[in-house]
Amino acid sequence: MPQQRTEQPATATARALQYRIDGPAGAPLLVLGPALGATWHMWDRQIPELTREWRVLRFDLPGHGGAPAHPAASVADLAERLLVTLDNAGEGRFGYAGCGIGGAIGAQLALTQPQRLTTLALISSSPRQGTADEWRQRGVVIRTNGLDPVARTTPDRWFTGDFIGAQNAIAEWSVQMVRTTDPGCYIAACEANAAFDVRDVLPRIGIPTLVVCGAEDQLAPPADARALVAGIPDARLAMIPGAAHLTPVERPGEVTELLIQHFETAWQDQPDGGQQTGSQSVLPTRPNHVPAPAAVAPIAEPVSSPLGWAVGELTAGTGTAGRADAVEAGTRLRREVLGDGHVDRIAAETDDFTADFQSFLTRVEWGEAWSRTGIDRRTRSVATLGILTATGQLDALADQVRGALRNGLTPAEIREVLLHTAVYCGLPAADAAFRVAQRVVREETTPEE
Predict the structure, then answer these.
(1) pTM
(2) How far apart are CA 236 and CA 238, in angstroms?
(3) CA dihedral angle for residue 326, residue 328, residue 329, residue 335, rounded to 10 degrees
(4) CA distance readout (Å), 232 to 203, 227, 437
(5) What is the DSSP letter of 313?
(6) Which DSSP symbol is given to 311?
(7) Please, what's the b/e burial string for 67-91 (b: 16 or more CB within 10 A of its CB; e: otherwise)?
(8) Sheet containing 235-240: which strands, arranged edge to edge?
(9) 358-385 confidence digits (pLDDT tens)
């Protein structure tokens, strides 16, 4: 079959992604999703083997690899943009493999669009990667220092020490790839990772799934891979020894062979025999083909996104049920703004004497006031910093400076807020506020070495 090579910069619309297609025209389609900070070139070493029998579509995340810088607010948003891209290209059903946030996109597709997927591979992936605090803290560091600190530490996060020592050029390539990513899109992807959590809905993934994990992966460790396999009914685990997070780059041969075996077996086992829509053809059976267990039937109704709630929906009701809803919503928003560490510390210190007050505070301050949609969180942070400075509430000010950084204010903007309060609240109040803010900003924005 003739080879097809197509590159699409996706400059026409913010809803489409930059992509490239390689492989024989008319062959079944595989889609490969990248890790955060990586471009489609992370899959270069899989392409020669995969394109023998498949067309392979690789895409870039927004702001990566020169792609248009249209930040995506959630993993669900990224999945929707990928579907728009595939629809624009006239593609129907497809197999999917993704690494890191690319794996999260695959899990999202399996939950919400199972009829489009024939099979799924989750590489270096987690049902919930890290903690929301860790991802939001990375966003704070980038807003303050740019991407360079994150870029410089990328090899240590992506590869084992032995690989870095032997493949210095690839390690430097990873640094430059992250360094040239659009910071706003990277921060938005951090926020998407912070909100992504599909642990409770994994049993509803009805797609044959391969989970691949590097045994030395610190970002998506083996425990996360085992959680995926335990939760997804038709899933199997492949552990690659001596590999860290970016396994398609560090161990390309093993990853390629695993993908070929999985896609070939699962595709042949489809109820329609692998027949695809449009011009796509049936994948030929190899002599050593071993049938896989029958695919689980797609769920009748798409699962609502775990990211589906919005701030505007966090409204307090009346009566006991309404108060309980407001406390739950307030706790969630309080964690997002002030961090898990703060909320966990308050919870640990709460006893019978203070429990009612903490419930009242969470419900009124966070479940009602902070949840209103008349102004955004950045504006509320500006107002809160000014009010706390004026009233001399320095302990609360420290917490809210952390919250302001998480809500997107830069240290320069916080400085301007405090300078402005000096005019109207007095120099002593502003001086005390600056001392508190200086300490917190240093703590929150110092990059990890």
Answers:
(1) 0.75
(2) 7
(3) 130
(4) 5, 9, 46
(5) G
(6) G
(7) bbbbbbebbbbbbbbbbbbbebeeb
(8) 3-8, 19-24, 55-59, 29-33, 94-99, 117-123, 209-214, 235-240
(9) 999 988 899 888 988 888 888 999 999 9
